[in-house]
Amino acid sequence: MKRCPQCHSTFTDDSLLYCLQDGSALVPIAKPEMEAETLDLPSISDNATEGKNVGQNDIQGNISKPKPTPVKAGFMGDRRKRYAVLVGGVIVLALVSLAGYRLIKGSGAQKQFEEAQAIERSEGSLSQRACKKYKEIELNSLSSSAVSELERKIQDCTSVQNLFQAAEKLEGDKGLDHETAAAYRKVAEKFPGSAYDKRASNKTSEFERNKRAAIRAWDEFQEIDYKLLAFEVRLDLGRGGDPGPKLREYRNTLVEVVNDYGKILEHPDSENVDPRVISRIKEAIAINNQKAVVIDKFERDGADYVERARKKEAEISSESERIDHNIWVDQETKKLAKNYEEAANEVDQRNRALAQRDKDIASELEKKYKVEFLDRH
Fold first, then answer.
1. Which residue, 40, 58, 163, 257, is the most exposed by fewest CB within 10 angstroms?
2. Do residue 68 and residue 102 come from a single domain?
3. pTM: predicted TM-score of the whole model, two decimal places
């Protein structure tokens, strides 16, 4: 049996949950309380013994009050019950669905996290592919420990990417010089093993190869150029007598020098040499080839002069003709010498301009590679 705490109505139907009068939740009635609700009629014999006359009204006054007649659940009661059950079911279903959704979503995010970790392990680095995978994961779907690790991974991905992009921009502005190489080296040192580290390390290695190649090519070029200059000075000091043998020796030296310059360009690491050095060596080859052409022309003109002089000398028949011949010889030799000097001076002037440029190139290379480049001029 149950009782309404508000209107005190009682109900024998224990399946009822709410009062049919005011809708309050019913409470069960304890068994002793139920027995107290019913009073027995007093014994007439006992009253007679005590000398009391018990009337009909006294008897009815001692009779317990009639219990409310239980009212059976009607339409309204059933509707409220069904409504309560429906609302409770909807709430439970919503909670279960939400929990299921979060469970499924969380397991999906965890799977993505594990896949990103697998990529990082397989590639041996915090690669771009791993970083992309990490950034696709939703933080609020992971456990707190996984969230902390994922946040660190994303931060590392962002930091290394920013450093690498800064190094790339510096290379675009200044080329692969010592400052750019230092920026790439910073990426490799701070994020070892990452995909950016590999690219940065490649750039750093490229810089070192270029520096070694430039130093080698420049030193060899300067050494060859210095030897040629010393030879030219020796020729100037040894002027006099027949110039033919000296010029032929000079020409042969020029050919050797040009070949030596060519060997610098044929070296396996020539592709790593700074373009300014390559350009300067090619200009030196062109200059020395031009010198050789001048000497060849002088020798041809000289041979032609000798042949003509011999013929004229063979035709001399008088002293006056000999005097005229000697005058002609003097004029021709001076003309020949003048033509050679003009051609040689033109080449020398160009060569002096390049020698001045060598100082500028050496200075530029020192700034680029932060190492001393010799200028033997």
1. 40
2. no
3. 0.57
